[in-house]
C-alpha cells in the first residue's frame, strides 16, 4: 500500500513540475546552454561542485553510508550531464 501511495505522489509531482515547460522551444534552450558554456563562472562552478561531490562520496563510503553516496553520485552525474549538454550545444554553435 505504501508503495502505491508513493508512486501516485511521484506521478502527481511530475505532472505538477512538468519540466518540459521550462523552455518555450529548443532554440531558447540552445541559446541558454551556449551562453552558460561561454561564462567562466559556469565552468568553474562545475569543476568545484564536482570535486566537492567526489569528496562527499568518499566520506560517505568511508563511514559506510552507501545510500547517501549513491544520491551524491546521482547529483554528480546531473552536474556532469549539464556540462556535457552545454558543451555539445556550444560546439554546434561554433561549427
Question: What are the defining features of this structure?
Answer:
single chain, 95 residues, mainly alpha, 0% strand, flat
Structure description:
It contains four helices and no strands. It is mainly α. It is 85% helix and 0% strand. The protein has one domain. It is flat, with a radius of gyration of 17 Å.
Overall radius of gyration: 17 Å
Average of pLDDT:
86
Q: Which strand-content bin applies to the residues? A: under 5%
Largest sheet: none
Tally of alpha and pi helices:
4
Distance between the termini: 54 Å
Low-confidence stretches: none
Q: Number of DSSP strands?
A: 0
User: What structural class do you assign from the helix and strand content?
Assistant: mainly alpha
Number of domains: 1
What is the H/E string? HHHH
Query: Could you estimate the helical fraction of the residues in percent?
Result: over 70%
From the spread of the alpha carbons, the general shape counts as flat
What's this entry about, in short?
With 95 residues, this protein is mainly alpha-helical. It has one domain (22-94).
